[in-house]
Amino acid sequence: MDDFEPFHSAVNRIPVLRKSGERLADAGRLPKSLFKDQEAPGHDRLCADRWSGSIDLEMTVRTPLVFGQQTIEHEDGKERHFIDLPMDGDDLVVPPTMIKGMISRAYETLTCSRFRVFGDHSRQLTYRADAANALRLIPARVIEMNEDGGLLIELLRGDTIVNGVEYNGNGDHPYPVMLAASLQDGNKGHARFAPGFNMDRLRAMTRHERQVRCNLKLCLHPSSGHYAYWQVTHLYDNHGNPIRVFDINDNVRTVDSLEDVTGYVYRTAADGDRASQVFQRKHDERVFFDISGQPERVSTAPHVVDSYRRVVESYSEQREEKDLQKGMRPNRFTNVDPSDLLHVGSLMYALLSEDETRVVELVPTMIGRRPYSSSPHALAAKQNVLPLADAEKASAADRLFGYVVPNADDGATGGDVAYRGRLSFGVVDASEARVSHEEKRLSPLLSPKTSSARRFLTDASGATPSKGNNPLPRSEYFAPGQFLGAAAYPVHRRLVEGKDLDKSGFPAQATEDPVLNGKEQDNAAVRLIARSWMKTGSVLRCTMLFSNLSQDELAALIWVLTPGNLVPPKAKQEHPDAVGYLRMGLGKPFGLGALEVSIAKNGLRAIRGGDLAESYANLDGCLGLTTPVVGVEDFPLPNEALLLKTPWVRAMQRAAFGYSDGAPVRYMSLEENRANNQTKPGSGDPREGYGQSPTDLSAESPRPLKIKKPPRKTKKPSRS
Predict the structure, then answer these.
(1) Which of 308, 322, 290, 305 minimizes the C-alpha distance to 365?
(2) Which residues contact residue 143 at a Cβ distance below 8 angstroms, ignoring those fewer than 6 apart?
(3) 26/172 same-domain check
């Protein structure tokens, strides 16, 4: 894999535009039986005009298939993770539920159905804020805890109320002044310990949230000169005597000073840790102060406080996910007791509204995590994609494959609790499966991070959310009006064409060591070892029974089981025999688990309920024994031409077919991701050419992504 070369994202999203489908159904342009919520038919009778029967499925493995029981074993004191195909003696066992899940996902996508599984996503997600927004944050201290859950805080604006928010001197361009003073945490930084002073004395005099008296000097940032900051040089002892703590380095330009300033120590590093252990380039903690004599006091609403708590929780979640830079320590908020988080005297940063009349955010750090404005649950509710709450709200996939109401009301019965689907899957015949026992150590399988908003969100048209013609800044994702997409893993066409495989026929990309800063990383503890896997060319067979399906439901089911339908129109014109694939098993981002799923020859048997009743009455037939073979052409998808133009079907076809331009399908590398997140100073908007999202799957000819290499930084000469 070559960084900064064109590629297609291995993780993308398919738009879920339920309201668009409903509007087309209400207008009579799409069938209501597929695109309108309604109660599922009962199982107590077969309707005269509905179909029952069976479908023989043939599933040909086109890229290696990995699935099975995962186990943990210890070798030489090290933990190893394994996965093995399930076997019954010498026979491979393929659970029918896997086949059902694969087909249900395709049917759910085609019909714009509800998300049938949706975790606890009621809390706001968080993102890492851009440094450009730090100057908008105002240091704050809690004065009162209100009974309604809100807070009364005072805003500690440093010297800016008295001296202004910018330093202008000696004809230089203005320097924005940081509101909080820098308290260097050791000798690493723009100052050094004064003779006779050391780290132990500094820690003893500057405990977190302690009130201190200090002397400050105003410094211009030595490397870029973008801002001015107050640096603590002296601390006052218990007798009121100033103690020289730091000497400013000679290469730092100092332009002003303040004496005997009262403030509050704010440490984001946990007690006993250095600032640089939280973030490698961090060398300062802060002192919050205000020399105006009358700091402004403002009240904060309970929901703002709740968002603050959510941000703090996210730090603990990061640690649980081991989402810390190697060698770094978690900040003090990671293990904080919720009951101790907020109290009179707590310190934080406040973000005010544009007119500065109210607090819109409270955050624990200047450059850290921030909450998105809406939770995934809130967006899903507005989008009408949450799992159903009662029987009358069952979407097409719910009615066909069954459902369980997540939070059924007390006393609810029948379909208001659960519904058994009208499809059942028989034993999977794996006698033509080819199993390899050549161990494959898989590349790290990254868990989908919902907070990586660019991968999962669309606008109301199904396209990538944007700001005019420009990418959105991270702060504007998960906002009202945006839509959750369904995760998709585009097929790797080079693999199904037999390219980029090792000698055993396994995708080379799926076993590569990840690369960081040009070096391969071999961390076996986070890698899954497949001790057995199914080879390309394996064939699986299964019979699917169905009952009481409408003409439209059966037509839609047949449509997703016809591989030729899963091809974008342009590709179909160029290659009439082209097919698309459904996905199953592990490693989809690496191209594993592409299956060509089709109806076997003469494999569709169906009979109407009225005809079946007549055969029972005449004692000349019964379901499953004398069900006639019918042609798939007898069940055309209603208004197929219109449906094929919808964004969700176009995206579905692209994901199932892949890309024909030869560009690789892969994850964005860490270096590319860092470059892509570059922002403009002051605004937080993505830099020109950056902030890219995965290309819309619904585009007629999706272009590969190409992340620009960031410009090389040149070191400025030090001031003498």
Answers:
(1) 308
(2) 151, 152, 153, 154, 297, 344
(3) no
Between strands 435-436 and 533-534, the pairing is: antiparallel
Write out the two tokens for 291. 């020399």
At residue 340, the 3 state secondary structure works out as helix
Q: Is 201 a domain residue?
A: yes
Report which secondary-structure segment, H or E, holds 299.
Answer: strand 296-300
Residue 715 domain-assigned (yes or no) = no
Beta bridge partners, 361, equal 351
Chain-centroid distance of CA 657 in Å reads: 24
- Rg (the chain; Cα; Å): 31
**Pair of tokens at residue 171:** 């004809």
Phi-psi region of 116 (alpha: psi -120 to 50; beta: other; left: phi over 0): alpha
DSSP string, 67-87: -SEEEEEEETTEEEEEEE--E
pLDDT of residue 323: 52
The answer to whether residues 114 and 160 belong to one domain is no
CA distance 316 to 493: 40
Residues 141 and 17 in one domain: no
Regions of the chain short of the pLDDT cut 70: 1, 130-135, 170-172, 222-225, 279-281, 318-328, 338, 446-451, 514-526, 681-682, 713-720
Task: Burial-class residue 201 by CB neighbours within 10 Å (0-12, 13-18, 19+).
Answer: middle
Q: Which residue in this structure is represented by tokens 């007549």? A: 614
- Cβ atoms 387, 117 nearer than 8 A: yes
In contact, 265 and 210? CB cutoff 8 Å = yes
Q: Is 272 helix (H, G, I), strand (E, B) or coil?
A: coil
The amino acid at residue 308 is Y
Q: Are residues 289 and 180 in the same domain?
A: yes
Residue 339 and residue 309 in contact, taking contact as beta carbons nearer than 8 Å: no
Token pair 């133009």 in the structure block, residue: 645
328 token code pair: 């770094």
Residues 498, 628 within the same domain: yes
Could you read off the pLDDT of 386-426 as tens digits, one per residue? 999 999 999 999 999 999 998 888 889 999 999 999 999 99
Task: Let me know if residue 220 belongs to a domain.
Answer: yes
Domain count, the chain: 2
Give the range of the structural domain holding residue 619, as residue numbers without chain letter.
8-37+48-123+397-676
- The answer to whether residues 492 and 64 touch, using CB atoms and an 8 Å cutoff, is no
289/421 same-domain check: no
